[in-house]
């Protein structure tokens, strides 16, 4: 059990923030701030215009704010099949909707785990993957973040011991904002007939590239399993898992987070389909421009490493006073002594609006150099 007193003294204590978000802004502590803390990378989730247009389109359709049952009992709408068909037509894989990225990883990895399977995971994969491995008591090894040599050694050492090896990675990592080396991973995978690659595209799909990193690199056919979350750049809720037909059938029959959860409302599924029908290339270009302007990352996730918890909290507070909402990220979310600001860029916030933020961060770096 967590010791709350120790958490408070270490600066790692957490509590809910009372906020209200709309468009690119967030209301916090009686201030209206630019929201640089969300995963709403294109500014879709809180767009009033998009919301109003969508609601006008669904008034005559049978989509609802509740679903009433697990999808295995019944569907409240054909919206589920429409969305799955959209993904299947673009990825040449079978699609399966889950309630969230977390429940998807938890259910999928648990269902795939057995004594004949070994998982090999990047050390910085999402907590949902780690929890799935631990809770399912799966056989697993971890390799140093983005270290292809370490992955190669593990595959060479263990490929003959297991019927199946599944390599787990994110496409864009959620706290560091860097990219997995998918070409190198696929080249390694092809050396061993029993190795499969599982890529979580949570922070890459629809953000920098419409269909994610795997497709942008023309490698999606070589990735065995792709997870897409609908709650980040797409601004909705739920997740879609892409795999072959056999695995889809196995998951429908054994993924407990799917079987024993009430399905997400059909109006949420219809919203995602509506968003996918729109062109967000202009916002995507702003996102690319802001990444180049800030010079902290190659993706929309821009970590500014501070080090200690209290220092990160102080810098976050300073930015708050200047009109920017950027909470501090602290251990155990990130390793000890790497507390940081996780700046999440958006397609509705321009580089010009980030100018004073960059000045503050540049001054901080200069003052703490060496």
What is the topological layout?
Elements: H1 4-9, E1 19-22, E2 25-28, E3 31-35, H2 48-58, H3 79-91, E4 94-98, H4 101-112, E5 117-122, H5 127-135, E6 139-143, H6 148-158, E7 164-170, H7 182-189, E8 195-200, H8 212-216, E9 225-229, E10 239-243, H9 245-254, H10 256-259, H11 266-276, H12 281-294, E11 301-307, H13 309-321, E12 324-325, E13 328-329, E14 339-344, H14 355-367
Parallel strand pairs: 3-12, 5-6, 5-7, 7-8, 8-9
Antiparallel strand pairs: 1-2, 2-3, 4-10, 9-10, 11-14, 13-14
Helix pairs in contact: 3-11, 4-5
Secondary structure: number of strands? 14
- Note the main sheet: 7 strands, mixed
The overall pLDDT, averaged over residues, is 95
Give me the strand/helix succession.
HEEEHHEHEHEHEHEHEEHHHHEHEEEH
Key phrases:
14 helices; 370 residues; globular; alpha/beta; four-stranded mixed sheet; seven-stranded mixed sheet; single chain
Describe the protein's architecture and organization.
The structure is a single chain. The protein has 370 residues and is an alpha/beta fold. It is built from 14 helices and 14 strands. It has a 7-stranded mixed beta sheet with strand order 4-10-9-8-7-5-6. Strand 8 (195-200), helix 8 (212-216) and strand 9 (225-229) form a beta-alpha-beta unit. Helix 3 packs parallel to helix 11 (266-276) and helix 4 runs parallel beside helix 5 (127-135). 43% of the residues are buried.
